[in-house]
């Protein structure tokens, strides 16, 4: 059946575009009247128009509802308004156009024909045009004078091909002449927008070929930091304490934390220690509506502690209630409905969901805005940070960009570590752990956390600090202090490590692992294993802490084993399952005696001895023999080289003789032992503080060592304390910390020194001394090597249990020593992260000092592009070799590479592609690649630009698929 070409509906492969291509090839003049003319669709017919003499395009300017309303109000646009509206329309069209070589070629041809007069374009000023009219005038002597197509199709991809349309082709002369007459009448009264069109394409769209690498670099920074640099609000102070210094970096943190809090329901306030997180929190609380609750450790709630939460909030007149971490039960019972905002200090304590305290805290936090205050939110496994995030985000329905399912995201990270042995697969384990940390920072914490280091504050807020008369003290490199073991002591020390780590089975503390009665659940089994591991770590730490504490621990272990075996002979085994969590808490505060009391508690569940494997008694007796062997070895040791070294330092070191000293140890017994011995030499100068100390002693600590004490005294010069003072108390009347024990987790070193390394200290320099065991030698290098060897022995022999020693932080044995003598560890900057603040400051400086350039940068179009010469290897620009064009072929890796910046809502991603598959980059890496000078020359884009762009677009799409369980890797 013969087709009727009178009607064109885009059905059955007979679309308007195909009909145009048939008719236009014989056309001398082509006139178009439409409401919408998308230049980006011009590529579809421009080749057919090559032989056409003249093209006239008349468009309406009513491209949206707002424009239609404006026309109805004013009836007529001025010519300037028409041109401006037209320019906006063209810019908007190109912004949303597809990215293809064909579209670019079509637009370039459109511009060429505008310039040479072959094509004219006008906009109609007085009414919104709804007509769609296409007039084709054939060359003289053709079949007839011309054709008219009219109907529903605009000159767009949808109108020409995709949509179901209804168009009619008119073939009679009268129809042609009527249409042409009406077109000419409208054309006569229309506004010529040729120049504005050319200007718009060249300046306001991605076809702008004058954008320099430097301008695009600044545009990249502007778009990335748009929210930060557009913040115009100021911190509103209800009240400012007398002599309080309004610091720019703190106020900036308040603005940022408030924004995050309102957007995500929670925020991590995680500046490194000593930058005033409590002050920032008080200022933030004053910006929030609703009642506020602060949950903190008891020491941080005491009224006699100048830096406590109640005191700081009172200074700022920020209303709040305060509750101790240990009283969550009472808090839940009272109800927390009246609170809208909850601040949780030392939030890193809640890294695990497997304890009752966390469950109670989760109840308290439900439905509230949560501010988690911690300098160390992420330290161990990916699950650590998830537990804290779940206090304010739904794990399966989060509002974090592109991460609706946090459980799946974190479980995938954990899965990557499973099957890797920390010792056997150490390098791979380290690699995966670092990759996991980076993924968490880039995909999660960047949206939820405010964290700055001292270096960042000094670099980017230095002018304000100087204006306020403040400066951070210089942090000296920590000094290693070697206490030397003689040959016999060294032999005993080394033998003991092997005995307590490898030979000793800790059967006394893991009885249920030998139980053959009722089957245990997995949690009970794991709990028993953990108990054995923790007791092993306790002995290891005591050995390094002090010979005195270690000998006492061995004696208590022997007594405990003897009692346990005696009871076993009587047919009974006591297991205190319900106190397991309490025991772990006591381990944290170094209350070993209370642990033994709890373990020996007769209220514990009683099991018949016959229900245990026969190996149980054998292992108990084996352990007791090991303990007695260890005791026998240490009975030979009569001197204390560590204490002797410390006393020598106190008498010989100029710094130690004139300053107040803070001495940290993890052992209460060590603290009391050292204090007692030092007191004999420095009468009335020594104060000891442990978890057992009274409130009166705490008052003495504050009066003598806190520079902000209301009633300062000078009764004591040397403070010897346990970990209980490593957080939340200012001790900055001193500028010197001595770590009597090895701080196995470098984070503890940062926290300890953070007590004296405060922004308001009067000291110019901070000193740190760390004790290490070593073998006697006259050679300093050999002393260091022997010390490193002992650390290596501890960590290597412990194997997987080394994570308990370092509190979960992944550290290679040879690396730990170096980190403990690095000032970067003290300042909290040893994570190896580079700061985004550098780049924020660059665009801020442009905004403040070059307003014209900043205005130009803001106006640069989306999808802007440029090209420059550089060598890129492994995602980094090589600056040590002669440059190669990035789009050249051949040479030293001279293939084209393309970096693309994608944004979808609040999600931002960066992809780099060259001759392989696309690689996702973090912001810092992308910024380094784009970094350019003002005089960097723009190069011509490579021919494979669109091919590379398509690869990056596919990679972005693939990366933003929402948590599909299994996706096959795409092959490039």
From TrEMBL:
<dbReference type="Pfam" id="PF13091">
    <property type="entry name" value="PLDc_2"/>
</dbReference>
<dbReference type="Pfam" id="PF00271">
    <property type="entry name" value="Helicase_C"/>
</dbReference>
<keyword id="KW-0378">Hydrolase</keyword>
<protein>
    <recommendedName>
        <fullName>Helicase</fullName>
    </recommendedName>
</protein>
<dbReference type="InterPro" id="IPR014001">
    <property type="entry name" value="Helicase_ATP-bd"/>
</dbReference>
<feature type="domain" description="Helicase ATP-binding">
    <location>
        <begin position="258"/>
        <end position="395"/>
    </location>
</feature>
<dbReference type="InterPro" id="IPR000330">
    <property type="entry name" value="SNF2_N"/>
</dbReference>
<dbReference type="Pfam" id="PF00176">
    <property type="entry name" value="SNF2-rel_dom"/>
</dbReference>
<dbReference type="InterPro" id="IPR027417">
    <property type="entry name" value="P-loop_NTPase"/>
</dbReference>
<dbReference type="InterPro" id="IPR025202">
    <property type="entry name" value="PLD-like_dom"/>
</dbReference>
<dbReference type="GO" id="GO:0016787">
    <property type="term" value="F:hydrolase activity"/>
</dbReference>
<dbReference type="InterPro" id="IPR001650">
    <property type="entry name" value="Helicase_C-like"/>
</dbReference>
<feature type="domain" description="Helicase C-terminal">
    <location>
        <begin position="642"/>
        <end position="802"/>
    </location>
</feature>
<dbReference type="GO" id="GO:0005524">
    <property type="term" value="F:ATP binding"/>
</dbReference>
<dbReference type="InterPro" id="IPR049730">
    <property type="entry name" value="SNF2/RAD54-like_C"/>
</dbReference>
């Amino acid at each position: 059946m013969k087709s009727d070409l009178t009607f064109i509906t885009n059905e059955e492969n007979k679309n308007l575009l195909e009909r145009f291509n048939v008719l236009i090839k014989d056309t001398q003049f082509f006139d178009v009247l439409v409401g919408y003319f998308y230049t980006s669709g011009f590529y579809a017919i421009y080749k057919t128009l090559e032989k056409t003499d003249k093209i006239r395009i008349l468009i309406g300017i009513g491209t949206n509802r707002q424009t239609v309303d404006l026309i109805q109000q004013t009836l007529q646009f001025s010519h300037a308004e028409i041109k401006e509206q037209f320019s906006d329309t063209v810019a908007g069209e190109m912004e949303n156009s597809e990215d293809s070589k064909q579209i670019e070629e079509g637009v370039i041809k459109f511009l060429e024909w505008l310039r040479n007069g072959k094509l004219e374009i006008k906009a109609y000023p007085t009414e919104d045009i709804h007509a769609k009219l296409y007039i084709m005038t054939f060359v003289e002597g053709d079949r007839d004078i011309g054709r008219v197509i009219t109907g529903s199709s605009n000159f767009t991809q949808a109108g020409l091909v995709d949509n179901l349309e209804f168009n009619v082709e008119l073939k009679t002369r009268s129809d042609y002449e009527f249409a042409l007459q009406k077109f000419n009448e409208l054309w006569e009264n229309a506004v010529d927008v040729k120049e504005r069109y050319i200007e718009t394409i060249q300046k306001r769209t991605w076809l702008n070929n004058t954008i320099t690498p430097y301008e695009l670099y600044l545009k990249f920074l502007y778009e990335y930091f748009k929210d930060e640099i557009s913040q115009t609000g100021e911190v509103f102070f209800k009240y400012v304490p007398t002599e309080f210094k309004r610091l720019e970096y703190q106020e900036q943190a308040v603005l940022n934390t408030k924004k995050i809090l309102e957007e995500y329901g929670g925020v991590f306030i995680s500046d490194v220690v000593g930058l005033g997180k409590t002050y920032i929190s008080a200022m933030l609380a004053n910006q929030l509506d609703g009642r506020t609750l602060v949950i903190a450790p008891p020491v941080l709630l005491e009224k006699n502690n100048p830096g406590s939460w109640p005191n700081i909030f009172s200074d700022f007149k920020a209303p709040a209630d305060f509750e101790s971490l240990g009283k969550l039960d009472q808090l839940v019972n009272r109800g927390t409905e009246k609170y809208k905002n909850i601040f949780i200090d030392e939030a890193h304590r809640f890294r695990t969901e497997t304890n009752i305290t966390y469950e109670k805290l989760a109840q308290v936090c439900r439905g509230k805005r949560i501010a988690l205050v911690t300098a160390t939110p992420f330290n161990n496994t990916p699950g650590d940070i998830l537990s804290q995030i779940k206090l304010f985000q739904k794990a399966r329905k989060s509002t974090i960009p592109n991460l609706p399912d946090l459980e799946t995201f974190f479980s995938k990270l954990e899965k990557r570590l499973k099957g890797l042995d920390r010792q056997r697969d150490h390098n791979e384990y380290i690699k995966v752990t670092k990759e996991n940390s980076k993924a968490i920072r880039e995909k999660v914490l960047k949206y939820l956390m405010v964290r700055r280091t001292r270096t960042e504050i000094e670099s980017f807020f230095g002018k304000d600090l100087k204006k306020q008369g403040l400066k951070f003290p210089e942090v000296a490199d920590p000094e290693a202090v070697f206490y030397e073991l003689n040959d016999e002591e060294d032999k005993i020390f080394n033998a003991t490590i092997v005995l307590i780590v490898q030979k000793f089975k800790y059967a006394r503390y893991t009885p249920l692992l030998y139980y053959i009665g009722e089957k245990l659940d997995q949690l009970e089994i794991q709990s028993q294993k953990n108990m054995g591991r923790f007791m092993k770590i306790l002995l290891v730490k005591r050995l390094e802490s002090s010979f005195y504490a270690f000998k006492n621990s061995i004696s208590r272990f022997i007594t405990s084993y003897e009692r346990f075996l005696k009871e076993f002979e009587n047919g009974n085994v006591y297991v205190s399952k319900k106190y397991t969590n309490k025991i772990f808490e006591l381990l944290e505060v170094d209350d070993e005696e209370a642990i033994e009391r709890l373990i020996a508690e007769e209220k514990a569940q009683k099991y018949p001895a016959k229900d245990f494997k026969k190996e149980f008694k054998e292992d108990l007796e084996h352990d007791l023999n090991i303990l007695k062997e260890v005791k026998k070895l240490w009975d030979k040791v009569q001197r204390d080289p560590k204490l002797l070294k410390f006393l020598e330092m106190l008498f010989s070191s100029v710094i130690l003789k004139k300053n107040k000293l803070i001495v940290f140890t993890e052992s209460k017994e060590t603290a009391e032992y050292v204090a007692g011995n030092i007191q004999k030499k420095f009468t009335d100068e020594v104060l000891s503080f442990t978890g057992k100390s009274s409130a009166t002693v705490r008052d003495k600590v504050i009066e003598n060592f806190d520079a902000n004490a209301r009633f300062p005294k000078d009764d004591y010069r040397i403070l010897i304390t346990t970990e209980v003072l490593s957080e939340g108390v200012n001790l900055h009347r001193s500028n010197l910390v001595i770590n009597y024990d090895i701080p196995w987790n470098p984070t503890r070193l940062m926290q300890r020194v953070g007590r004296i390394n405060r922004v308001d200290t009067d000291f110019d320099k901070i000193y740190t001394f760390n004790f290490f065991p070593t073998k006697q030698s006259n050679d300093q290098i050999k002393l260091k090597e022997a010390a490193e060897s002992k650390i290596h022995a501890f960590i290597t022999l412990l194997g997987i249990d080394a994570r308990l020693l370092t509190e979960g932080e992944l550290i290679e044995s040879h690396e730990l020593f170096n980190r403990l003598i690095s000032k970067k560890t003290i300042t909290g900057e040893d994570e190896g992260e580079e700061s985004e603040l550098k780049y924020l400051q660059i665009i801020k400086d442009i905004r403040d000092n070059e307003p014209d350039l900043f205005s130009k940068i803001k106006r640069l179009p989306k999808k802007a592009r440029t090209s420059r010469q550089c060598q890129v290897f492994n995602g980094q620009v090589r600056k040590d070799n002669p440059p190669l064009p990035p789009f050249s072929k051949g040479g030293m890796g001279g293939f084209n590479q393309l970096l693309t910046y994608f944004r979808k809502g609040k999600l931002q991603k960066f992809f780099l592609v060259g001759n392989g598959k696309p690689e996702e980059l973090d912001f810092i890496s992308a910024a380094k690649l784009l970094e350019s000078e003002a005089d960097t020359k723009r190069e011509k884009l490579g021919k494979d630009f669109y091919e590379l762009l398509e690869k990056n677009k596919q990679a972005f799409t693939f990366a933003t698929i929402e948590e599909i369980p299994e996706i096959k890797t795409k092959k490039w």
